Amino acid sequence: MKAAVLHQPRTPLVIEDLAIDKPGPREVLVRTAAVGVCHSDLHFLDGAYPFPMPVVLGHEAAGVVEQVGAEVRTVKPGDHVITCLSAYCGHCEHCLSGHLSLCVAPDTRRREDEPPRLRATGTAAMNQFLNLSAFAEQMLIHEHALVAIRRDMPLDRAALIGCAVTTGFGAVAHTAGVRPGETVAVIGCGGIGLATINGAALAGAGRIIAIDRLPGKLELARRFGATDVVDASAADPVDAVRTLTGGGVHHAFEAIGLKATAEQAWAMLRRGGTATVIGMLPPGVKIELKGTDFLAEKRIQGSMMGSNRFPIDMPRLVDFYLSGRLELDALIAQRLPLERINEAFDELRRGELARSVILFEH
Fold first, then answer.
1. What predicted TM-score, i.e. pTM, was given to this entire model?
2. Tens-place pLDDT, residues 21-38
3. What is the sign of the dihedral through the CA atoms of 73, 311, 158 and 135?
4. Tens digits of per-residue pLDDT, 219-231?
5. Closest C-alpha to 318, from 105, 80, 136, 27
6. 5 with 14: CB under 8 angstroms?
7. Which of 110, 181, 195, 220 is the most buried (most CB within 10 A)?
8. Residue 183 · residue 190 · CB < 8 Å
């Protein structure tokens, strides 16, 4: 199969022919149909986060089941599926208490004494990324890293549910628990930020303020449900939000992954408000908060993949899309073949588009 391989950080991905193993117990072989190009991949591509090399990146994917191994109970060949990087074991404390996205049990990976799922030329091992490695024509993954969906769901849009939409919607619905009528600010209108805005609209937020530096993204944010927009290049976003709301928002979501914007999310809260950091802050970065704000019962928290229960959440999000309540069409700015994946990452660095999607022809 063809796959895009990263050999060293800050170098272009290389399209190579790789070998993929057959499904073992609890494993599923998926023919990849579409995969989104996510900023999380860029963190590893550019070396902000370390990962063993060589590796096939990619994690926001949808496809069709080709084969299943022994003991697989949740899918069968021919099923259309969405993958999720937060694979879960199903029996640890996190899973049993309903926090599947926090599971770190090794059960969903192959043991060191087993053959690797991916191999380069000859017998050289190829590292699998976040249980998935989706920038490839096929994926061999644990059954607890995917979920079957309706066959009438377009797979290019289904792929976006695999990360951006699940993360943004889940941060609103699960991590923060936004209630009808509450005020929300979202800093950053990329794929995850737009999904967060859409999630806030679905939750019934009374006012949704989108914050970005690009006019095009702010205009797009209105389509996803923003009631107000703030151009952070022309005004101080904290002052603007506090003025618009008469003192601050109930919920602020940081969807970029920067020290400055995480601190802004905290500063634009009203008394008793909650800041949720969705973006991936670089390792070693520390944020500074005003200590007296804790006397006003402000809270700050992180969100891992939207605190998802993806086997439940993703089919419901598919239903939302097919009923016209979830906006996915406008999230896709361009569709590209695997051979043009480096162009997609160059565009991601420029930050002008919402989402690029890699399509596979089979």
1. 0.95
2. 999 999 999 999 999 999
3. negative
4. 999 999 999 999 9
5. 80
6. yes
7. 195
8. no
Residue 175 and residue 304: Cα distance in Å, rounded? 9
Token digits for 334? 């361009």
Direct distance between the N- and C-terminal alpha carbons of the chain, in angstroms, rounded to an integer:
11
Contact 63, 31 (CB under 8 A): yes
| Count of beta carbons in the 10 Å neighbourhood of residue 159 | 29
10, 86, 178 from 284: Cα distances, Å? 20, 23, 30
Give the CB-side neighbour count of residue 333, counting CA atoms within 13 A.
19
Contact 86, 304 (CB under 8 A): yes
Orientation angle between helical segments 191-202 and 215-223, nearest 10 degrees: 30
d(CA 209, CA 360): 36
Enumerate residues 6+ apart whose C-beta is below 8 A from 93.
none
Query: Around Cβ 292, how many Cβ atoms within 10 Å?
Result: 8
- Measured distance CA(150)–CA(325) in Å, rounded: 16
Q: Check residue 26 and give left, alpha or beta (phi > 0: left; psi -120 to 50: alpha).
A: left
For the beta carbon of residue 67, count every other beta carbon within 10 angstroms. 16
Judged on CB neighbours under 10 Å (0-12, 13-18, 19+), 334 is middle
Q: How many residues does the chain have?
A: 362
Are residues 35 and 358 in contact, defined by beta-carbon separation less than 8 angstroms? yes
CA 94, 98, 99, 101 dihedral sign is positive
Percent of the chain with pLDDT over 70: 100
Q: Whole-angstrom Cα distance, residue 302 to residue 78?
A: 37
Residue 317 main-chain phi, psi, to 5 deg: -65, -35
